[in-house]
Amino acid sequence: MSAAPFELCLITKDPELAAVAWQAGAERVFVDLETMGKAERQRGQGLFLSDATLNDLSRVRAAFSREGVLVRINPLHAGTAAELEAVLACGADIVMMPMAQRIEEVAAFIALVQGRALTSLLLETKELLGAAEQLVRLHGLDEVHVGLNDLRLSLGAGNLFSAIVDGHIARVAAVCAEAGIRFGFGGVTRPTEHTLPIPPDCIIAELVRYGARMALLGRSFKSGLAGPADLDGFKAGIEAIRARARYWSDQPPEAMDAMRNRLRSAIAEWTPHS
């Protein structure tokens, strides 16, 4: 099996940590400016809600010394054009739109960007999932990242990782590959994080299986650092993830299937039962 290497992206508003990510070899940093409807949608989920600002974006842009600053804006609304102008003025290289439900929303977003940055769609609604084949034919769409948690909420699924094994990720990966659009999903962390309910190595193996080109570094990755300036820890964590990706890219189908079964079992054990 062959697999293209996937880029690693750190979510942060901290310029010091962004600078360390750059020095450690992370390809991207992600500044999250989405606020509209997010608290209500994820109430009770125990998830992190960003309070990043345009000023934070400017500081991260100055600290991250390569292209690869990704900014998530709000869902399409009356103020999207002004929001886009602001993030582009602050140096965004990639702009991500969340929570679209219709192809027309994505087309409008692409038209507003006007080729001034890469366009990234966060696919996280059942409506847009159902239109994946039409979505990837949109001219000007550069990449699709599947947002596992909000997709779980939209689908009414019991576990945010279910989409990896129930055919949803497989379908999106296939249509993106056919259209030549970059694709990614989920988050990764050090394969040695053994306290997590889903083994990180399972997710790394699935990213390789599906030919993902990008993945987010999860919260546990940052929590495993000694501090924002822990360059050695950051480098070691990234290399550990990449080493496992190289390992899985060389494994035969039966080894990949065994790892998929391990992931299924972990999902079943973690999913609440009524």
Query: Major sheet: order of its strands?
Result: 1-2-3-4-5-6-7-8
What is the helix fraction of residues, given as a range?
Answer: 40-55%
Q: Count the E strands.
A: 8
* Structural Rg: 18 Å
Quickly give the structural class: alpha/beta
pLDDT averaged over residues: 92
- The percent range for strand residues is 5-15%
> Main beta sheet: strand number and arrangement?
8 strands, parallel, barrel
Shape: globular
Q: What is the succession of H and E elements?
A: EHEHHEHEHEHHEHHHEHEHHH
Q: Low-confidence spans: pLDDT under 50, at least 5 residues?
A: none
Oligomeric status of the shown chains?
single chain
Measured distance between first and last alpha carbons: 39 Å
Number of helices in the DSSP assignment: 14
Write up this protein.
The chain is globular, with a radius of gyration of 18 Å. 41% of the residues are buried. The chain is α/β, with parallel strands linked by helices. The model has no long low-confidence stretch (mean pLDDT 92). Helix 1 (15-24) packs parallel to helix 3, helix 1 crosses helix 13 (231-249) and helix 11 packs across helix 14 (253-270). The chain is built from 14 helices and 8 strands. An 8-stranded parallel beta barrel has the order 1-2-3-4-5-6-7-8, surrounded by 6 helices.
